[in-house]
Dehalogenase
Amino acid sequence: MAPAEVKALLFDVFGTTVDWRSGVTRAGEELERRKGEDLRGVDWAAFADAWRAEYRPSMDRVMRGEIPWTNLDGLHRASLEALLRRFGISELSEEEKEFLVCAWHRLDPWPDVVEGLRRLRRRYIVAPLSNGNVALLTDMARRAGLPWDLILSAEWVRRYKPDPATYLLLPRLFSLRPGQAMMVAAHPDDLHGARRAGLRTAFVPRPLEFGPGGPTQPAEGPFDVVAEDFVELAERLGA
């Protein structure tokens, strides 16, 4: 059970709250239907996996100072160019490239998410704490009906997770101690970063994040709470 002093829950988004792989794959398939023969034979699920694999390296380049601060939309756009070459995709218009980049704004939540968040919101402040930029997270929330109390993003502090400044954003804004906030994620490395910053942690596995038969994230704790999904998390946290 969560310690009684926890007042706020912060949620990782990509993979924990929403299914990025299906959404990006769907966007590629829609573009293929529009363009026809030009895009026949592209493995869009593999394309989504490859795009996601660029996520951490691109943020690390920002954090090392190799490139100036760039939000996630900008990093996705830069990664896309290399991916198009790798997958032999040419002749996309700027509008079509933008359609693919904005697929990350149009991701669906896992089936338990909206109900779980609504229940948790009765007792706790609930907010995303994502490396996604504010516009991306806002578009996603409006489309998917995610009932956040506010949108928190690494963009506010211009530091990507696991930099401590990201995890301490909500405690700073609400004058809370770090231990009064709990990070919820399907990725142990994210939770370890939160724990180092003084936050409580909750692990919610998402075995289908990388598709059926894909790699899974083992529950390598210690975590304060482990729950099967957001509904069970609400039950465990008394909401």
In short: Residues 20-35 form the longest helix (16 residues). Residues 8-17+110-236 form a domain with the Rossmann fold fold (CATH 3.40.50.1000). The beta strands are 8-11, 18-19, 108-109, 125-130, 152-153, 181-185, 200-203, 225-226.
